[in-house]
């Protein structure tokens, strides 16, 4: 799950502090970036289905602790189990595609492509949620796609196939965000997280015998730690949105690119090419364009919209 998919919880009566919310989100993004690096490293040894199983199964531990603080079992009840199951299956597909991209591509490349997601969500909101999409939104999409094309290098690092995986995962993730928005009308945020993690882990169980790689003690500890850290990321995200609005913490998400470049260089020796850096700037510009369009639409009088 992503930082933009979880609404602010009523965990306790601690006074809200926007600065604390931004700090918690920054810590969450740093942890999320380390998780992506862990996935890339683990994928050198373990199949993706095994990584997804450990990631989601052990993420449930801290998430269930959080659920207890948010109301216990009543908070996990759902009136729309079919949609919860469908969302979990879609999210599992997102993980398969994105983890495949992390395995093939440098982290910075895959991370840059993920910045297109808010724009794709905006476009999908028109047919799926009835939202208005203007020419500026379409322009932002075209600029963003141009940024992705700048990054693709057919002669190096398997970038074409990796970019296709990352782009497909980003689009599917945008679909999942629309589904989560629909569910949020009747379901609690914690129920969506728990259902998604639980079902996603369960769907991997039947596939494990066909590709299971027996981990050593140290490797098993690493897989479990990855799952626990994923749950901790969810907790930090929810807590950050308790203290601050999604708009207030949204800018922090762009620090993912900094972390991806640093971790990719230190851990894997990946040096971003000028094309990747230029493409990243273009993608960020497209996101700023879409954000500006949203602000203008929000400020426009109703009769002119």
Provide a descriptive summary of the structure in words.
The chain has 305 residues and is mainly alpha-helical. It contains 14 helices and no strands. It has helices at residues 18-42, 48-69, 73-76, 81-104, 107-114, 117-129, 135-151, 159-183, 189-204, 208-211, 217-243, 246-250, 255-268, 274-299. α2 crosses α11 and α6 crosses α8. The longest helix is centred in the C-terminal third of the chain and has 27 residues, at 217-243. Helix content is 75%, strand content 0%. The chain is globular and about 45 Å long. It has one domain. Mean pLDDT is 79; it is low at 2-13 and 301-305. One of its GO terms (cellular component) is membrane. Keywords: Membrane, Transmembrane, Transmembrane helix.
- Biggest sheet record: none
Measured between the Cα atoms of the first and last residue, the distance is 32 Å
Mean pLDDT: 79
Q: Count of helical segments?
A: 14
* String of helices and strands: HHHHHHHHHHHHHH
Quickly give the structural class: mainly alpha
Report the helical percentage: over 70%
Protein name: EamA domain-containing protein
Family: Belongs to the drug/metabolite transporter (DMT) superfamily. 10 TMS drug/metabolite exporter (DME) (TC 2.A.7.3) family.
Membrane topology: Multi-pass membrane protein
Pfam families: EamA
In short:
The chain has 305 residues and is mainly alpha-helical. Helix content is 75%, strand content 0%.
How do the strands and helices of this protein lay out in sequence?
Layout: H1 18-42, H2 48-69, H3 73-76, H4 81-104, H5 107-114, H6 117-129, H7 135-151, H8 159-183, H9 189-204, H10 208-211, H11 217-243, H12 246-250, H13 255-268, H14 274-299
Helix pairs in contact: 1-4, 1-11, 1-13, 2-9, 2-11, 4-8, 4-9, 5-8, 5-13, 5-14, 6-7, 6-8, 7-14
